[in-house]
Amino acid sequence: MLSGTYVRLPQSNFESVANMSFMLRITCFFACVLCGSATSVSASTPVAGAAPLRLRIAVLSDGHSTYFIRLLEESLKLIHQPYQIHYVKDIPARRMWWMLEKGEINLIYGMQSKEKESSKQLILVRNALTNGLVGQRVLLIRPADTKVFAQVQSVDDLKRTRLIAGLGAGWGDVKVWNAAGLPIYEHVAPWRTIYAMVAAGNRRVDYLPRGVIEVLGEARSHPELVVEQHLLLEYRADFSFYLGASAASYRPIIERALREAEVTGLKARLIDQAFGHDITTLGLDRRLRLRLSANAD
Fold first, then answer.
1. Nearest-angstrom CA–CA distance, 25 and 1
2. Between vectors from CA 265 to CA 264 and to CA 268, what angle results, nearest 5°?
3. Which end of the chain is more exposed for a tag (fewer CB within 10 A), N or C?
């Protein structure tokens, strides 16, 4: 028996969602009957009379979004909250925030910041989604620079190397690195071109700081660079979900779901499943920890 549905809407133009709603209900019913355990349908019992959350979410197709979306979905299922999700894929970061403010999407995840929290168009969902892992950074470097980084024993040592970090324009890291007096290059073009700039060795960019939850995957995609093995730079930072103003009423529901995920251990399990292997591989416990005092806000 179908007791509740959790539907991922297929990617399409927003204008077609209303026209598809009837067909989606029929499709979802038969998908549940025929497939039973299909990932787009859950048999969890929804809260009596609860209206589904209708979410339009910007995501990346490169895998970076996988944990965050899974945490959202599994947390909502945990409290038996029905939902429908329409995914909008691979939108540039600045455009995502613009779309959120304009109501073209109504949920994204992003770095916590005071600027976002002060915006009347952005509604912070209060939960640190990675339990601080985003603020733990290791470096992608050129292999030839391995010995230089291996000799660093303090933030001042790193500063004295005069090696330049490549950072995307508007990243929270920019404030942190500037506050520490570490040289940076703030890249206004698409940030993913920084990999090639570091590898080239003649573009005034020497390393790219990346979170421990993402760096190994990026290193596999960019074999011309290596993961620096000695340092772990730490500062206070994390991702949170942000809602558009039109979806402000969803905040207490999503916050309750995320709290329940913490209490039940679901969140810890999902973090371990998503990032545990990488954290072990990176050997965080054996690294020299350099604390950067500024927050990424």
1. 15
2. 155
3. N
Instruction: Name the residue with tokens 């990999």.
Output: 195
Top CATH class, 133-235+280-291: alpha beta
Mapping DSSP to helix (H, G, I), strand (E, B) and coil, where does residue 141 land?
Answer: strand
Residue 232 DSSP SS3: strand
Give tens-digit pLDDT for 155-207.
999 999 999 999 998 888 899 999 999 999 999 888 889 999 999 998 899 99
Instruction: Give yes or no for a contact between 78 and 257, defined as CB atoms under 8 angstroms apart.
Output: yes
Of residues 266, 246, 241, 250, the one with CA closest to residue 84: 250
Q: Which of 47, 48, 93, 55 is nearest to 73 (CA)?
A: 55
- Which CATH number is 6-132+238-264's, of 3.30.70.260, 3.30.70.1290, 3.30.70.270, 3.40.190.10? 3.40.190.10
Between 11 and 129, the more confident residue is 129
Which percentage of the chain shows pLDDT scores above 70? 82
Tokens of 153: 């024993």
- Cα–Cα distances (Å) from 216 to 170, 177, 226, in that order, read 23, 22, 9
Expressed in angstroms, the distance from the first to the final Cα of the chain is 48
pLDDT (tens digit, 9 = 90+) per residue, 70-123?
999 999 999 999 999 999 998 887 889 999 999 999 999 998 888 888 888 899
CA distances from 18 to 22, 32, 217 (A): 8, 21, 37
Q: Domain map of the chain by residue range?
A: 6-132+238-264, 133-235+280-291
Residue written as token pair 């999902």: 270
Q: Matching CATH topology for 6-132+238-264 and 133-235+280-291?
A: yes
pLDDT tens profile 240-257: 999 999 999 999 999 999
Spatial neighbors of 52 by CB under 8 A, at least 6 apart, are: 46, 81, 82, 83, 84
